[in-house]
Design brief:
Belongs to the mitochondrial carrier (TC 2.A.29) family. It holds the Pfam family Mito_carr. This is Putative mitochondrial 2-oxoglutarate/malate carrier protein. The protein has two domains: about 40 residues; about 290 residues, Mitochondrial carrier fold, CATH 1.50.40.10. It is built from eleven helices and no strands. The longest helix has about 35 residues. The N and C termini lie far apart (about 60 Å).
């Protein structure tokens, strides 16, 4: 009995000492934060968890900043893609006429319709794609260095394609809500959904059309994201690598590389973005059928009814939407990455 009591006392004493150590460590940590807040922050940023999480956090913040800046242009781009659906001839809308119509029908702030969905999409999609890209690039770099090699364009392209595809699958519901909110104003007033926000849009779509409907247009969304990321991330990374030995300063290199990436991202992804918009906007007609059966069917019908160049109508607007968004995203992400080194 005595030995049992002694053992119990020893355990209590050990627990007490451990608690005192923890309290001392906590007190020391608190004092360090007070004495050297910058150093404490740096220590926290260099914990294994934060080193893994930072690419995702920085990517999401960068994407949300860019979306807030670019949202009106995105609204005009979507309206341009939906105008004249199924008609090969007739007046062709321009960014200026579409902007006038939006403002005339409501107010200037209507250009920010769907901003909540756009921010949610960036919080999910851009967080994932930039975080995954940095993670994949880190793994590829480690593997290449172990073999005494350097990362080439092929590895950058693989990382961009993979990150884009996976992120698009995760972010499709928010992307769908964004398209629905932006296209709602094109419907007759008695048929508009008048979504109150992204949460309301997601809930009503899931309730009336089923949860699976939140992934409508997922296939072209994924292909578009892969094409966009191939053009954006792979060419940005490659351009920065090529510009390192030039006379340009770090900021000029980042700006130039992001402009190059924006062009290639626009060129490769616009046809898929066009089809994605059409598929996500469509609703059943009086016969209970959808206008398009899927991505291939949409491509075929647009080529037949509207002509192949229809996919690139509004390229200038799309470029003005994609290039600055890519530039702001990549520059902000680059800067956040520098701050959190």
């Amino acid at each position: 009995m005595s030995s049992t009591v002694d053992a119990a006392k020893r355990k209590v004493d050990e627990a007490s000492l451990a608690a005192q150590d923890v309290a001392a460590d906590a007190s020391a940590a608190a004092q360090k934060v007070k004495d050297d807040p910058k150093g404490a922050t740096q220590d926290f940023l260099h914990t294994p968890f934060m080193r893994s999480a930072l690419p995702f956090i920085n990517g999401g913040l960068a994407g949300m900043v860019a979306t807030t800046v670019i949202q009106p242009i995105d609204m005009i781009k979507v309206r341009l893609q939906l105008a004249g659906e199924g008609v090969k001839t007739g007046p062709k809308p321009t960014p200026i006429t579409v902007t006038r119509e939006i403002i005339a029908a409501g107010k200037v702030m209507d250009l920010y319709t769907g901003l909540s969905a756009g921010l949610l999409r960036q919080a999910v999609y851009t967080t994932a794609r930039l975080g995954l890209f940095d993670t994949f690039m880190g793994q590829l770099k480690t593997r290449a260095e172990a073999k005494g090699n350097k990362i080439g364009f092929g590895e950058r392209a693989t990382a961009g394609l993979s990150a884009g595809g996976l992120a698009a699958m995760i972010g499709n519901p928010a992307d769908l809500a964004l398209i629905r909110m932006q296209s709602d104003g094109l419907k007759p007033k008695d048929k508009r959904a008048n979504y109150r926000g992204v949460g309301d849009a997601l809930a009503r779509i899931a309730k009336t059309e089923g949860v699976g409907a939140l992934w409508s247009g997922a296939y072209p969304t994924i292909v578009r994201a892969m094409a966009l990321n191939f053009g954006q991330l792979a060419f940005f990374s490659e351009a920065k690598s090529q510009l390192k030995d030039t006379s340009l300063g770090p900021r000029a290199q980042t700006l130039t590389a992001s402009a190059i990436a924006g062009f290639f991202a626009s060129f490769f992804s616009l046809p898929f973005d066009f089809v994605k918009t059409r598929l996500q906007k469509q609703s059943k007609g009086p016969d209970g059928k959808l206008p398009y059966k899927g991505m291939i069917d949409c491509f075929g019908k647009v080529i037949k009814d509207e002509g192949p160049l229809r996919f690139y109508r509004g390229f200038s607007t799309y470029y003005v939407r994609i290039a600055p968004h890519a530039m702001v995203t990549l520059i902000v992400a680059d800067y956040l990455g520098f701050l959190t080194k």
